[in-house]
Amino acid sequence: MIIGYTAGVFDLFHIGHLNLLKNAKGMCDKLIVGVTTDDLVLYKGKRAMIPFEDRLEIVRSIKYVDAVVPQRDMDKLTMCEKLKANILFVGDDWYDTSKWNVYEESFQKKNIQIVYFPYTKGISSSKVSEALKNTRGWDDSKG
Hints:
By secondary structure, the chain is of the alpha/beta class. The chain contains 6 helices and 5 strands; from the N terminus they run E-H-E-H-H-E-H-E-H-E-H.
C-alpha cells in the first residue's frame, strides 16, 4: 500500500487546495493530510482566519482525504516516518531551493519520495484574503 502525506494550513479553502488533494490521492492508496495548528501558523508569523478545528473538519470532509492529523511542527520527515508514508506531496514553489535540496537527501535516505505539485494559477489563500478586503472591506487584523 502506498501512503501519501501532505500538510498545509488550508485556511480559506479554495480550488488550489482541492486540486492538491485530488492529485495527491491519484498517486497513493491512502492520503493522510496534516492540518497546521493555530500555534504553528502563529509561529510562522501569520494568523489563520478559520479556527484549527474548523479547518480540520473541512479537510476531513474532502472525499480524497483518508485521514487528517494535526501538523504541530515543521518536521515533515518525522511525520512521514510516524505515518509510514512513502510519498510527501508539496507545492512546487519549494522545488530546487537549497532548503528542500537538503530535505530531499534526508527523505531519500528513508526511501520517501517527494512529489512537487504546481500551484493552481491565480489562486492562493493570500489572494482570497486580499479579494475579501477589497470587495467587502474585510479587515483581517480584527479578531
